[in-house]
UniProtKB/TrEMBL annotation:
InterPro entries: Biotinidase-like_euk, Biotinidase/VNN, C-N_Hydrolase, C-N_Hydrolase_sf, Vanin_C. It comes from Pteropus alecto (Black flying fox). The active site is at E139, K239, C272. Keywords: Glycoprotein, Hydrolase, Signal. This is Biotinidase. Catalytic release of biotin from biocytin, the product of biotin-dependent carboxylases degradation. Its EC number is 3.5.1.12. It comes from the Eukaryota. Coiled coil: none annotated. GO terms for biological process: biotin metabolic process. It catalyses: biocytin + H2O = biotin + L-lysine. It is an enzyme of class 3 (hydrolase).
Amino acid sequence: MLQNPNLVLYSLFNPLAIEDKNGFLNVVTFDHVSSNPRLNPHYSLIFPKFTVCIMTGASSRLALFLCCRFVVALGVRTAAHCVAEDHEAEYYTAAVYEHQSILSPNPLALTSRKQALELMNQNLDIYEQQGVQIIVFPEDGIHGFNFTRASIYPFLDFMPSPQLVKWNPCLEPHRFNDTEVLQRLSCMAIKGDMFLVANLGTKQPCHSSDQGCPSDGRYQFNTNVVFSNNGTLVDRYRKHNLYFEAAFDTPLHVDHIIFDTPFAGKFGVFTCFDILFFDPAVRLLRDTEVKHIVFTAAWMNQLPLLAAIQIQSAFAIAFGVNFLAANIHHPFLGMTGSGIHTPLKSFWHHDMENLTGHLIIAQVAKNPQSLVSIENATDKMDPSHSKFLEILAGDPYCEKDSQEVHCDRATTWNMNAPLTFHSEMMYDDFTLVPVEEMEGYLRVCANGLCCHLLYQRPTLSKELYALGVFDDLHTVHGTYYVQVCALVKCGGLGFDTCGQEITEATGVFEFHLWGNFSTSYIFPLLLTSGMTLETPDQLGWENDHYFLRKSRLSSGLVTAALYGRLYERD
């Protein structure tokens, strides 16, 4: 039984609304170890106290939820909590937990099943303190990482196929051997009356007659498991796109796992590196009833384009789904960044300083609203958008030879274009142009992809920004074809610093960014100072170009990018 009153509140809900000296309700969060609330600067939901309980519309739903739960938790009887029942008909309560896992001191050493369970149970003890309608825990959170195939073996649970066997590990603990972790997870789901998604290592015996059977007679998989609120093993997903994971096998066939819930319908599930590939991530969404994704990860952040919260939010926006992402927390390895992302709003955690786990809870719409528009819906009289449309309508046809880009007619907006330069970004050779003026229009091209930027800014900061393009095969730490248009803050004032990892910036822009992409799979990345996510004002296709529009940034721009994937060229 939790005795500390702050921890009791934390176990009921998180984030929490707390009044500041100005009479505003602020979203705060609780670290797993600390009992003290702290204001989370990454949340932008700040509401006047006197309006929070009477606001209407989609943007106020979370505020209403926080107000209701806040007054109920404190035992104050007001009219606010009476609205919650109707509110819950449209929303469900989801949680993700960024876990500071307890790791094996020597993952390469051989150990016993008993010793392995002792370590895994320490992590499971932390897991057991949570509870909502659905919760997601991170990849490698129970067993750790950096094992060999042999040294991970004692950490593996036996996994029967949920398609062949209906099984409740908590209620039938002796049905299969070596299933202690599954049993504990099943019991957690029952105790919390919640759906539970977790990641563990599993083993499956195979015979020599199976041509894919490894020489040691077993498959070893990086596995997500899904339990219903009654403890039944609903399904399992075996990671397909492994990322330097010698301890695990790639399944012979891709698992396309969709599970149904009574509170929000269908969820898809995949793991970490899978997010960059067509299978299973994109193929799952061909089922139009899948409106929610659960995502476990042990993701190492790589700026300026692939920080964990960047790609999580971008996936939610690009496909118009809710994205529940739990990342592991090991800042010394660059691992942090979890969130509950909708197409219109994100609630996230990114912390490279503190060594504590972190729980995020939010109310999530059962039917998410898409941000991406097929037809341009912006007021044509808006000056910046009118200029964008004017440029787009007059964009000349361009071809690239070995030296430069040639266009079939000269235009007034590119006669004095700055010289291009090259710099390494994400291990790729980007072609870039500097962004030097208070306002202007720039274009840069490579391999048929032309990226355009129409921008203005209130003041010039003492920082170098650049517009870059890349249209080619990425070959470091994975092989996959990308088309990228990116506006980035450089690491310094030299051109060779463009593409370096930075997290702070002061330059504020209003801009349109667009390109003639040859794929429909485009992920919008928008990050500002202090690892703050921003939502685009508008996205969509216009005259065969995909564009992103943004004004009123909350802080200095770090990255604005359109990250296209050409899966067929991988």
